[in-house]
Design a protein that fits this description.
This protein has 2 helices and 12 strands. With about 325 residues, it is mainly β.
Length: about 325
């Protein structure tokens, strides 16, 4: 058996951690008392987004199956005795470049189907389960040295089975905090189109209700894998959620993701909208990768578009 040796965290790890700490500091500042000494008014947001939304399980980095909005999760939980059922459809397109014997530029397209469920077992604890399957087509590198080239690949995959638990441990007027642990168990060991190995995700989520219509949210993830080809990662998500009406809200969101293979911190920015009618919720979101990932096959641009439906009972 070969042992797995991890190198010291690169600068991009420290950058991501500092960004997470900065976000927490910002949240603490927003929650500080009014300097005039006036009492803080209790704010009840228009939306309880724990009841109406299931997170999109973005296979790019996220192994979770519990509540949230796009890649940013809510710190709340499914109410005790309630059940959420949902399904997500995600399209991901990458503009890629490979420097081989002849330089080549191509696209990698992948479509994911992600059914999932969540159940409130106690007042502040929920559990979740889900599956992820996909169709992928693109090109991969084969050969070495002068014989290195790309070849076309297309495949259907049952990517993973997902399990998770979340505990809301702090809830006081305008702000909440929760901790969660998720596992993403690989059902496919294919080299192309599937993340390698099993993933284990520990996450701290928080949000702050600035007004009845505006909320600010952030999370910090520590993502580990049992794959020798992928190192542990630090991921920071942040966003602002605004309720335009009693049935529609939108989000401006961002992600910072450590990528050791590319020796950088990748940045993503996106928009999402959600329509809620009684027990039904429809969510549409998209995000863009802001900087290149310079690997053996370099991703110069990435676009994700996701559509999800959730039913709560």
């Amino acid at each position: 058996m070969t042992s797995r040796v991890r190198s010291q965290p690169p600068r991009c790890t420290r950058f991501a951690v500092l960004a997470g700490l900065a976000g927490l500091a910002l949240g603490a500042g927003l929650c500080a008392e009014d300097p005039t000494g006036a009492p803080e008014l209790l704010v009840a947001p228009l939306f309880n987004w724990d009841i109406v939304s299931l997170e999109q399980n973005l296979p790019r980095f996220n192994g979770s199956v519990l509540t949230g909005f796009h890649s940013l999760r809510s710190p709340g939980v499914t109410p005790r005795g309630a059940t959420k059922l949902g399904v997500g459809l995600l399209y991901s397109r990458e503009e890629q470049f490979a420097r081989t014997a002849t330089d080549s530029f191509f696209r990698r397209n992948q479509v994911f189907l992600n059914p999932k469920s969540a159940f409130g077992i106690w007042n502040d604890v929920e559990v979740g389960a889900g599956l992820s399957g996909s169709w992928v087509e693109g090109r991969e590198l084969v050969g070495t040295g002068a014989t290195e080239r790309t070849r076309a690949v297309a495949d259907w995959l049952l990517d993973s089975g997902d399990l998770g638990v979340k505990w809301k441990f702090f809830d006081r007027e305008r702000y909440r905090l929760a901790a969660s642990f998720d596992t993403r168990l690989a059902l496919s060991r294919a080299d192309f189109g599937s993340l390698p190995g099993n993933f284990f995700n520990f996450e701290i989520d928080g949000d702050y209700a600035a007004t009845r219509r505006l909320s600010l949210a952030a999370n910090l993830q520590l993502l580990a894998s049992d794959s020798n080809s992928r190192r542990d990662q630090v991921i920071v998500d942040f966003g602002a959620i605004y309720s335009f009406t009693d049935v529609f809200r939108g989000m401006l969101l961002g992600t910072l993701q450590e990528d050791d293979e590319a020796d950088t911190v990748l940045g993503f920015i996106g928009l999402a909208g959600q329509l809620v009618e009684e027990q039904h919720a429809f969510t549409l979101s998209f995000d863009l990768q802001l900087n290149d990932a310079k690997r053996a096959v370099r991703t110069e641009e990435q676009l994700d578009i996701s559509l999800s439906y959730t039913f709560t009972f």
